[in-house]
Amino acid sequence: MTQTQTQTIPDGPEAVPSGKLERIFALTERGTTARTEVLAGMTTFLTMAYIVLVNPAILGSAGMPVASVAAATCFAAAFASILMGFVANTPLALAPGMGLNAYFSFTVVQQMGVPWPVALGCVFISGVAFLILTLTGVRQLIVNSIPHYLFAAVAGGIGLFIGFIGFKDAGIIVANPATFVALGDLKAPGAALAMFGLVVIGALSVWNVRGAMLVGIVATTVVGWIAGMVSISPEPYSLAALTGTALKLDLGGVFGLSGKQGLGLLEILFVFLFVDLFDNIGTLVAVTKRAGLMDANGRIPRLNRILITDATATIVGSMAGTSTVTSYVESAAGVQAGGRTGLTAVVTGLLFLAMMFVAPYAQVIPLAATAPALIIVGGLMLLPLTEVEWEDPLSAIPAFLTVAMIPLTFSIANGLAFGITAHAVLKLVRGTITRKDWFLLVLALLFVARFVWMGGA
Known about the structure:
This protein has 19 helices and four strands. It is mostly helical. Helix 8 runs antiparallel to helix 18 and helix 10 (212-226) packs antiparallel against helix 16 (367-380). The longest helix is centred in the middle third of the chain and has 27 residues, at 264-290. The radius of gyration is 21 Å and the shape is globular.
């Protein structure tokens, strides 16, 4: 095991957690302290803070009031993360999901012509469907049907995904029409600042400095300010803005959708359900595995509570006025910083709650400051790939497809789809499929149907 997976409790008074925190979060049992959890929560928040600016910009293009979406984004992230911390005691932070917000805005509202209150109604119904699938055990059945070696592949694929996002945000990797991606200009201010951050966080990490990620992000941000690379242009904003989207969802309009909006209600709900379901499962597997929270049989403790929290978060988020809320891969940054309990998620949620008062000022943290943390965390998440039996094609081929397709398609759901489908097909070809694999075959057929029906959506 690596140092990040097993932590000793330091000596001294700071190592003794308060009674109430100990009872709620079992800090000693998880080998952590309140101080470590707070630092981890702050680290997760800083790597996720961009959503406060990005989500309003994306949903604003659908005609939603930007200030209202900013407030709703902060509220939804705060509610969901705090709930996850207390109910599931897991260091998993949540917020409105990237990708699903783009589908909500660009496809559902702008291309299909669905009014945004009706689209919010679709998100609400998908959240209710998530909850029903969880309470009936279907979501748990899905998790339990995934081969354990694919858990390792998902963790590694998400590591590459996180690293790729970091390189992209830093400008170290840029788009290229001939080769798709290429090396960016390392002398550009953003890339140079990110390279500085990589050196700082890397040096602090090898020196075993507690809170290396957080210190590195803050130090890089300060250097960016000094260099004049951070510009703040806040829009007019107040907490009252939340009333612009809160409870504005139109459930009646959902059932009035017709074929004029493409495939109508069924298509919209299917995408919201499918993408969030498998993105969430993939993130959940990767983060809990990285935190060492899986049991000896590869099962995730308190899985039912985690999934119920996720479904509830989507329902509440739609009522506040934002697209689907889901778990964030950036939670791995907090885990890397030592987060092992729900206290990490609670701290992240409280910071999002505080951000409600000053949402436009999230831009003081440049992407070049958080990108190095994502790059380093992504690299460290590749460790589980050693658990894959690469000499066995039955595991190697699906594992590779999972690892490759997650970053290359920018979708955890697509990676899982390719991996599970390949695993089912190869078991059929080898003749080792059994009656116990019936749900695996159902999942594979659903994935194939989804790709045939909707292409790469």
